[in-house]
Each structure stands twice: as C-alpha cells, then as structure tokens.
Amino acid sequence: MKRNRKEAILRVERALLDAHRSGDSAEPGGQFHSNAMRRIRQIGPHPLSSAANGTEPRFIWRFAAASCAIAVAVFLYSSSMDFSAIQLQAAQSLVEDSADFVLAEALAVI
C-alpha cells in the first residue's frame, strides 16, 4: 500500500517537473478575454455599490473637506494660545489631589 502511494507521488512529481522544464505556457486567447468581459457585463454592478449603501462619494468628499477645515481651525486657535497655561490647566484637572500636583511639579513632569 505504501509502495503504491510512494510510486504515485513520484509519478506526479516527475510529471510536474517535466511540465515545468518543457516551458510551454498556456496563454489565454482572445476568445477567453471576450468571454470574461461578457460575463463581467452580465454580472453588472456590485449590489452594495456606493449609491445603495448610502455612502455616495460626494458625501464622503464633503465630510473630508469639513473635517480638514475643522482641523485647520483648531490648529490656528491652539497656535495663538499660551501652551504653558494650557498644560498647567490640564495637569490640574488630571491630578485631583494637590499633593500629587506638587510632586508632579517637583519632578518636572509638568
């Protein structure tokens, strides 16, 4: 049983090696391409296209533009402010106990 299996494996390996060494490449012809394109046209658009699932490209681009405008506005606002005061306020709001705040100030974390 094992001998037949080994022989079958060797035959398959030899056939694969011979096919590889022969160098014949099976290129699809024009008929294949035309059949493939016909099949694609028959399938039609994807059922979950952009209009069907509510995410039209115009909406997405408008959302992206609005997001960029908000980001620029936040950047301009924050660049005009004093960062040391903002950092101090943030640290005070994060540290509830005043002793911890003094320790954080002493360790130059703030």
Structural summary, described in words:
This protein is mostly helical and 110 residues long. The chain has five helices and no strands. The chain is elongated, with a radius of gyration of 34 Å. The mean pLDDT is 78.
Looking at this protein, list some descriptive labels.
110 residues, 72% helix
Topology of this structure?
Blueprint: H1 2-22, H2 30-43, H3 57-79, H4 83-94, H5 98-106
In terms of per-residue confidence, which ranges show pLDDT below 50 for 5 or more consecutive residues? none
Main β sheet profile:
none
Bin the helical content. over 70%
**Radius of gyration, whole Å:** 34 Å
Number of helices: 5
Spatial gap, N to C terminus:
78 Å
Average pLDDT across residues?
78
> Order of helices and strands, N to C?
HHHHH
Shape: elongated
Concise description?
The chain is mainly alpha-helical and 110 residues long. 72% of the residues lie in helices and 0% in strands.
